Amino acid sequence: MSDRTPIIAGNWKMHRDHLEAIQLVQKLAYHLNEVDYEGQEVVVCPPFVALRSIQTLIQSDKLPIGLGAQNCHPEDEGAFTGEISVPMLARLDVSYVICGHSERRALFGETDADVAAKARAVQRHGLRPVLCVGEVKEEREAGRAVEVVVSQLRGSLDGLTIDDPDALVIAYEPVWAIGTGLTATPDDAQEMCATIRAELGERVGSQIAAAMRIQYGGSVKPGNIRQLMAQPDIDGALVGGASLSSEDFALIVGHRR
Ligand code: PEP
Questions:
Q1: Counting beta carbons within 10 angstroms of the beta carbon of residue 178, is it exposed (0 to 12), middle (13 to 18) or buried (19 or more)?
Q2: Number of domains in the chain
Q3: 134 CA from centroid of ligand 1 (Å)
Q4: Residue 195 falls inside a structural domain
Q5: What is the CATH number of the domain that holds 92?
Q6: What is the distance between the alpha carbons of residues 108 and 211, in angstroms, rounded to a whole number?
Q7: N or C: fewer beta carbons within 10 Å in the chain?
Q8: 115 lines ligand 1 (CB under 6 A)
Q9: In terms of pTM, does the model score above 0.85?
């Protein structure tokens, strides 16, 4: 077993208003036992409008749950109507910011350069990017998955300082597995996460890379989390759909029981 602290994060996407968000976290906390939090990080990434409510709930109930955001703007402030900056997130005790989720890349045209700029902004303010990479179905079928993921990784890490393994989390999310019910086999997920770690080693040195956390994401469910987490290079999960059910997310977090 590695000494990397696993991180299980729920990406709620554009689901739940702030009142529903409070209920979801309250129910999650109800389903989780103290031991479920031990030796791993549990993080929820609600929509922006629910961050303040959940921050307050976490503080008042002293919940050992971390807060993440799903996106940010690379600039600290300015005339960017509709955008949210990292300093604003920092004020809400947000610790993680998802950068370059495949939905942002595909639906909002984010390039590797955009993702890198956001991740640099996140780091500049002492928060941690959860940097997402992953190939689409056609790329995997064409045998190009590694090439695509390595290229995304290189581009998205441009200009980032990684002298602390905790400064960044990578999420390997094969796009064909996101929201589809299809999951990469534990072997395939492991293979890609090991490839990512080797590539990180080239970039930051093998010692730091060995201590960095790499999550798997893509239809993670209570039924497949154990096998995925048993892989030596998988240090957690980024969970979409199943994180919207307090019962399912609690079973995923509590997979060691
Ligand atoms: C995600 O959105 O990051 C994700 C992995 O979604 P799902 O778990 O629903 O596939």
A1: buried
A2: 1
A3: 12
A4: yes
A5: 3.20.20.70
A6: 32
A7: N
A8: no
A9: yes
**Which mutation among 182, 239, 243, 252 tests ligand 1's pocket best, with the greatest number of atoms within 8 A of CB?**
239
Note whether 125 and 166 are within 8 A (CB).
Answer: no
* Ligand 1 atom nearest to CA at 173: 5
Distance CA 116, CA 91 (A): 22
| pLDDT tens-place string over residues 200-213 | 999 999 999 999 99
Q: Is the pLDDT of residue 1 over 80?
A: no
Convert the pLDDT of each residue in 51-110 to its tens digit: 999 999 999 999 999 999 999 999 999 999 999 999 999 999 999 999 999 999 999 999
- DSSP string spanning 185-251? -HHHHHHHHHHHHHHHHHHH-HHHHHHSEEEEESS--TTTHHHHHTSTT--EEEESGGGGSHHHHHH
